[in-house]
Amino acid sequence: MTKQELAVLNEEFGMISTLDIREVSGVPVIFVSTPDAHARIALQGGQVLSWQPAGHSAVLWTSKAAVYQTGRGVRGGVPVCWPWFGAGDEGKPAHGFVRTRMWQLRETNWLGNQLIIRLGIRDDEETRKIWNHSFDLELQVVLGRTLVMRLVSRNTGSQSMTLTEGLHTYFNVGDIANTEVTGLARTLYLDKVHDMDRHIQSGAVSFTGETDRVYLDTDSICVIHDREHDRRIGIRKLGSLSTVIWNPWRDKAAGFTDMQPDEYKQMLCVETCNAVSNQVVVDPGKQHVMEAEILVEAGTTRP
Ligand code: TA6
After folding, report:
1. Quick check: helix, strand or coil at residue 188?
2. What are phi and psi of 215, to 5 degrees?
3. Would the pTM of this model clear 0.85, i.e. be above it?
4. CA of 284: how far to CAs of 135, 276, 280, in Å?
5. Ligand 1 close to Cβ of residue 95 (< 6 A)
6. 3-state class of 3 per DSSP?
7. What spacing in Å lies between the alpha carbon of 227 and ligand 1's midpoint?
8. Which residues participate in catalysis according to the annotation?
9. What whole-number distance in Å separates Cα of residue 270 and Cα of residue 256?
10. What single-letter DSSP state applies at residue 16?
11. Which of 131, 133, 121 minimizes the C-alpha distance to 47?
């Protein structure tokens, strides 16, 4: 992005002492500071990178070894996985193609004491070669005492589109071994670490090794009990029937060039998705909305 283009963006969308757009290693990033929270959002991938509500430590995690590079997603924050979640067909990128593409900034505005930021991406000749549909995908970020992310999939074509999707949220926890997730008890999950074996969750989810699970047919609120930080992080969702829980643990994390060896101890993904059998069909002219709201409370209670 040229300095001129950046200046035009700030002219149109900047908000004095609240919001400006800067380049980080060539990637335009929105920096937000309100009385309720600080946040950063990359235009590339429409990726929320950080959110820190007043009075709390950072809620989202980004790797200290994260790479800010055109065409490469940042390890952390909230990558948008669309129009598929997980491995793509032969030669297609994992988690879809929108997380490495440039999105357009559409709106920055106050709605009462909440700051609304809208970003969007539409199909083009390149995307239609990968996935032959006309679409408008929009992320609406609402920053207040909570973080709301609303992913709106609009079918602007003449054929129904079938998609899976995810807000692949990386959370900052004090120690993964002293962290649990409640809200998924008695829920069916596919264990990606063990050949997609099917299991029913018993009680809270705890972590003693690589964990990669797709919980299906669930619209439950999940709570991360982050005992080291003495806090609870709630994830409320709408329009989502799958929740993915992921921590790579030591060996898999060691294979990531954009993650330091021991960082897996401070991160946990609780992802708001429609995955595997929870796919979504959007008919021509229609839209589908998937929303996640993140909130933080001090103090942890045993689940
Ligand atoms: O959501 C969990 C997962 O699908 C894992 O299997 C792992 O692949 C992770 O996403 C990260 O994927 P990425 O392509 O961002 O390295």
Report:
1. strand
2. -85, 130
3. yes
4. 9, 22, 13
5. yes
6. helix
7. 25
8. 168, 271
9. 19
10. T
11. 121
Nearest to 48 by CA among 140, 157, 176, 162: 140
Bridge partners, 54 (sequence order) = none
Q: Decide if 282 contacts 161 (C-beta within 8 A).
A: yes
Predicted confidence at residue 303, as pLDDT, reads 46
Give nearest CA residue, ligand 1 atom 15.
75
Q: Which atom of ligand 1 is nearest to the CA of 271?
A: 1
Query: Ligand 1, atom 10: nearest CA belongs to which residue?
Result: 86
Q: How far is the CA of 70 from the centre of ligand 1 (A)?
A: 20
Question: Which of 99, 151, 86, 156 shows the shortest CA–CA distance to 122?
Answer: 156
Answer yes or no: is the C-beta of 176 below 6 A from any ligand 1 atom. no
Q: Which atom belonging to ligand 1 lies closest to the Cα atom of 166?
A: 1
In tens, the pLDDT along 13-64 reads 999 999 999 999 889 999 999 999 999 999 999 999 999 999 999 999 999 9
- Per the listing, tokens 């959007």 go with 282
What single string gives the DSSP state of each residue in 63-99? -TT---BTTB--SBSB-EEBS-SSSPSTTS-TTBSGG
Interval 234-267: pLDDT, tens: 999 999 999 999 999 999 999 999 999 999 999 9
